Amino acid sequence: MKARDIEPFFATLQAANPEPKTELEYATPFELLTAVLLSAQATDAGVNKATRRLFPVANTPQAILDLGEEGLCDYIKTIGLYRSKARHLLATCRILVEQHGGEVPRTREQLEALPGVGRKTANVVLNVAFGEPTMAVDTHIFRVSNRTGLAPGKTPLEVEPKLLKRVPEPYRLHAHHWLILHGRYICVARKPRCWECPVATWCDYRPKTPAP
Fold it and tell me: What is the assigned CATH class of domain 29-129?
């Protein structure tokens, strides 16, 4: 993707969805952190189904700790890898209570020190909960970045700084969501829906997928 194409690419995505939101349901930074921790190798819909039951009962670190592992597992057992996720979440809650007064920290270093929280999860929390213009490169963003030519790279760690460099500043806060949603619904993995893509004009992918 040529540099001159990036502005209209994001302007078009912004016009279609001016205030994009995560599809994970949450009301507080801790609920968001919990949902993102549970979302690894799971769908947002599947996570929301579990947290709709969990959060009314336990939506603070201490309340999760009070459930214990078995109690927590009862709420999240519909999610893949739920036992390891329960252990990570409980360990994270313990650190939040003991070291952060029960609050979610606002720095990358402190977030990545939490069990089960990697760079992508930290970026999501910093962006969605605290309004930082970070770029959480998941499989959708990785695919869209490479396929369109926006920020090609062999690994998410290679793509992330390229996106931060190439995405114009006015679009940086919401770029993460626009790219995820675009990859989830239009620029899908097996057969990109080029025939209904609003930004196909500026995309490097060839040949464009014809309408079925």
Answer: mainly alpha
